DNA sequence: GACTGACCAAAATAAAAATTTAGTCAAAAT
DNA sequence: ATTTTGACTAAATTTTTATTTTGGTCAGTC
């Protein structure tokens, strides 16, 4: 059996998307990195977009599997959130793709990058909303609009992991975690 | 004594900057709105940038005066924050200039608009940081990094007042206030 | 039959032409 | 005499055109 060319291509494309973003990744480049003729890519993927989609699918699946594992564990809402933050901050590869795409949207507004960002955001928001709803039912969390609160948590996370870095030294993982918990689980008041 | 042409110009320019942003505001347009020859503008302001600066100065002063009045009142940290949110959400004109400039930065990246946004952000962050530091000393707020927490509060405010609107119906003032307080002063846990 | 890379149309970028605008200043108005 | 003005200019921006790059194909190689 010959080498798995599809895996090679996915690997190369992921690397390039994370490093250069959607637009600056060319099919020629991917074929070079994967050591494969350009035509070969098109035996596995109809278009560049489809290749991109498949990589996004994989990222979403990974995220979903992490989330489902965490959600099923019998922990408090706070502990689940902490574990989720840990997984995301620890295994940054999906996070990095997300950040790169978000940057591309800001800088040149690539429509495919925007779709990718939206999709990953939706996944995260959906998971958070679901968890918040359940926590409200269990009377672990105060009655509130779960959509709005999920949105706030995500924005807070993005503010600390990416926006803060535009004007300051990046915060380390533990400071990020501590500050998220400070706001979400206890409030900043004594 | 003839009419106050400088005030007329400032008024016209403010209106145009709020409505169209920095770049799409032309000096011809300002002179037309102010019913003044274009040359007259240049007897009061050396350049378009200087005119813009003076308007930013005015906005900063207003903000500062509101903030100082609130800060001096003998209220809890939470109450001060609520009052600040009220003033900003109620008297939106400065807020609207800020939002328009932020949009211009996103859309076309005008450097002067970016400077304006940065400046207003710095004012707000500085005030928040100061208040948080004092509240920590009074043991009203838990020990934490005041810069980071000020940043988080501002991002949360911007997330609810502007980013939320990109994908949803705008939240009304009271929902915004409630959600801010939910996170800041008590946390979302029961 | 899997794989390739020269090839093509379409999209993106760069260059050139055309338009718009910030800022000036001689003349008009006060 | 002092203030105000709007036609004017150089510089910046936008639009148009020329050039290059890139996604996708397919005749031919392995």
UniProtKB/TrEMBL annotation, chains A, B:
Q: Where is the HTH tetR-type domain?
A: 3-63
Report whether Nucleotide-binding shows up as a keyword of the record. Answer: no
DNA-binding region range list = 26-45
Keyword DNA-binding attached: yes
Pfam families from the UniProt entry: TetR_N
Which SUPFAM superfamilies does this one have? Answer: Homeodomain-like (SSF46689), Tetracyclin repressor-like, C-terminal domain (SSF48498)
Q: Which UniProt keywords apply?
A: DNA-binding
Where do the coiled-coil regions begin and end?
Answer: none
| Name listed for the protein in its UniProt record | TetR family transcriptional regulator
């Amino acid at each position: 059996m010959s080498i798995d060319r599809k895996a090679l291509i996915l690997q190369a494309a992921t690397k390039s998307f994370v490093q250069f973003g959607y637009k600056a990744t060319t099919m020629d480049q991917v074929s070079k990195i994967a050591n494969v003729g350009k035509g070969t890519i098109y035996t596995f993927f109809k278009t560049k977009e489809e290749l991109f989609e498949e990589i996004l699918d994989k990222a979403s699946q990974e995220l979903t599997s992490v989330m489902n594992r965490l959600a099923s564990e019998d922990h408090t809402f706070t502990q689940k959130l902490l574990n989720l933050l840990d997984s995301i901050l620890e295994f940054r590869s999906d996070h990095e793709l997300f950040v790169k795409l978000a940057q591309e949207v800001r800088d040149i507004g690539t429509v495919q990058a925007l779709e990718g960002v939206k999709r990953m955001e939706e996944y995260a928001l959906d998971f958070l909303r679901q968890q918040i709803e359940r926590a409200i039912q269990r009377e672990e969390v105060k009655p509130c609009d779960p959509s709005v609160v999920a949105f706030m948590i995500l924005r807070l996370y993005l503010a600390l992991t990416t926006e803060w870095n535009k004007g300051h030294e990046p915060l380390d993982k533990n400071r990020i975690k501590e500050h998220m918990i400070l706001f979400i689980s206890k409030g900043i008041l004594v």
